[in-house]
Design a protein that fits this description.
eight-stranded antiparallel sheet, alpha/beta, 33% helix, seven-stranded antiparallel sheet
């Protein structure tokens, strides 16, 4: 889950590379480094810590090479240290490599190379790659222009695991080779220059024309062209795709942090996700889906599989699918799903949610379901991502780039899209039209209500100042609100490092109430009119034991009972989680700010978990 960037052109490469790393730092920030070709020799500069540390390396300003690769690391093999930083070179300093992913058989390859006289200087799995490339390069007695490519191809054929790789060679100062398997990598096409990156936003300010690589593709880049080959070195055609994102959407636009910017972008993200899929008088349409009434009626079960925040979005989707469509729906965490031999067959629809579309566990679960004969549907924010190319069908949120590690607008967009998907299914099945039409009307009003909810930030910030020094905070909810409590708790622990837990409010008396003591904070969500009285009763139990209470609600409650009540706009219960999560996102944000933490880059976390 590291970030890689590359450049080949006529400009000085190092400033472009460092700028790209800064934009990719949310993918990892344990160390960073760059490598360029200077006078037919490789230059390498790297250090432990943030990308900004590169500016302090003596001589980095003197790099004048116009071809280079760069890397920002999230440690997997080997501790964060300069020797484990990328790029890595082979022993002869002929090749320089950056890599995102995990080489599962690196111990085996390391032994093979050691037995053949190679020495290793790091603890990383990546260091086997340049040395393995050199091994095949040295064995090749030919001197044609494809020698470099053959060496890379032969080396990659021995790699097991996941990888996105950029390689430069001092003997080929006008070429760069990139390849990928199960890890993200894109190529941006410019005028007499080309760019490479893990993610589109890192190079979006330079170009909107992108090549999207499939697994095992190899690309040879020059300043003027990109040539593509399959794993057998057969030339393959590939066209660029136009990306419509505005480059400014990857900038802070005056906000103090990306996370705050992205919280405030949610009304727009929801409008874009709703798009033109329906209005109050037309049925919901997904042009990319061809699901018939007969197919949907034949389903025994729907699985929703995802990780972290995306899984909590799936839990909201489960509620909509089961109630609107009357199809049993099960939500499972992707990292466990394929290890429990799930009962999946041709009468199962499997839905996979991933913001980046590169989540390794989710992709692995998708592949398993395809093997078992199930139809697969991907929900992602990134067009052309790995998961969308693996799935039978794909639909997209339109949240735009999300830079902060803690997901906000991607989550609410996922909830919105899967709710619309449930409507699409229900209309195909000719279910209760009155319920569906009312929900569609409320969805159309949702962006405006999100804007109203965001105006409550001052009150939330005020309450945050009262509890930011606490060590434990608890979240309660019932029904659909319990799902929101889970996501609110996750958001708090992700960026504030406060221990937090969420519980169904009715479960308090079955154990968790033992943890409640004087002046501890309990956050409660109440949007279900059928459960308000019971939830209030549960909250009274923690108040009796001295808890401070923050209540998020759209119901009529006695506000004098609680320390703080955040009154959000009333809306349809199916989509209330999109409104009720916003105060909890702001709550986590302001607590983190009060503690003086890095909101956008919480410790130990990375944006895209591209390894298992």
């Amino acid at each position: 889950m590291c970030g890689i960037v590359g450049y080949i052109g006529n400009q000085k490469a190092s400033p472009i590379l460092i700028n790209g790393l800064i934009r990719l730092e949310y993918r990892g920030y344990d160390s960073a480094g760059i490598s360029t070709i200077e006078n037919n020799e490789l230059s390498l500069m790297k250090d432990k810590g943030r990308v900004k540390n590169l500016y302090n390396i003596e001589g980095i300003d003197n790099l004048v090479g116009t071809i280079g690769i760069a890397h920002t690391r999230w440690a997997t093999h080997g501790k964060p240290a300069k020797e484990n930083s990328h790029p890595h070179m082979d022993n002869s300093k002929t090749f320089s490599v950056v890599h995102n992913g995990i080489i599962e058989n690196y111990n085996e390859l390391r032994k093979f190379l050691t037995d053949n006289g190679y020495t290793f200087y790091s603890q990383t799995d990546t260091e086997v790659i340049p040395n393995l490339v050199h091994y095949y390069y040295h064995k090749d007695n030919h001197t044609d222009e494809l020698k470099f490519l053959r060496a890379v191809k032969n080396a990659c054929s021995n790699l097991k695991g996941s990888y996105a790789i950029e390689i430069i060679c001092k003997d080929y100062p006008n070429n760069m080779i990139v390849t990928r398997k199960d890890s993200p990598l894109v190529i941006g096409k410019g005028e007499e220059e080309n760019y490479i990156s893990s993610d589109i936003p890192a190079i979006l300010s330079f170009t909107r024309n992108f090549y999207l690589l499939d697994d095992f593709d190899l690309a040879v880049l020059t300043r003027d062209a990109v040539s593509f080959y399959d794993k057998d070195l057969n030339a393959i055609p590939k066209n660029t795709e136009m990306i419509e994102w505005n480059a400014s959407s990857a900038e802070k636009d005056g906000y103090e942090d990306f996370m705050l910017k992205e919280i405030y972008e949610q009304p727009t993200a929801i409008r874009e996700t709703i798009g033109a899929k329906f209005n109050e008088t037309t049925k919901c349409e997904f042009d990319e889906l061809q699901y018939t009434k007969d197919y949907l009626a034949s389903l025994n079960k729907i699985y929703i599989v995802a990780c972290g925040t995306a899984m909590y979005a799936g839990l909201v989707g489960k509620n909509a699918i089961e109630k609107l469509c009357k199809i049993p729906c099960e939500v499972d965490v992707a990292s466990e799903f394929r290890y429990r031999n799930p009962l999946v067959d041709e009468k199962t629809l499997c839905i996979f949610i991933s913001q980046s579309g590169e989540t390794a566990d989710t992709i692995a679960a998708l592949k398993l379901c395809k093997e078992k004969g199930a139809k697969t549907l991907a929900i992602s924010n990134v067009i052309g991502s790995s998961i969308t190319r693996e799935a039978d069908d794909s639909i997209y949120t339109h949240a735009g780039p999300e830079i902060a590690v803690a997901s906000t607008k991607a989550y609410t967009s996922q909830v919105m899209l899967i709710t619309i998907l449930a409507i699409y299914f229900a209309e195909k099945l000719e279910m209760d039209s009155n319920t569906i039409n009312l929900l569609k009307k409320d969805i159309m009003e949702l962006p405006k209500k999100l804007e109203e909810t965001l105006k409550l930030s001052e009150s939330i910030q005020e309450f945050s100042k009262k509890c930011y020094q606490e060590k434990d905070i608890f979240f309660l909810g019932r029904g659909i609100d319990e799902t929101v409590a889970r996501e609110g708790s996750l958001k708090l622990k992700e960026i504030s490092y406060i221990h937090s837990e969420s519980y169904p409010a009715g479960e308090l008396k079955h154990g968790p109430i033992a943890l409640i003591e004087n002046d501890i904070t309990v956050v409660s969500i109440m949007t279900d009119c059928n459960l308000v009285e019971k939830t209030v009763s549960n909250i009274q139990e923690v108040i009796t034991r001295g808890a401070k209470t923050l209540v998020i609600t759209n119901q009529n409650v006695d506000e004098n009972m609680f320390d703080m009540v955040i009154k959000i706009p009333d809306t349809n219960p199916f989509i209330s989680p999109i409104l009720s999560i916003v105060p909890l996102q702001l709550f986590a944000y302001y607590i983190s700010k009060e503690k003086g933490l890095d909101v956008d880059k919480p410790r130990n976390l990375a944006k895209s978990v591209t390894v298992e």
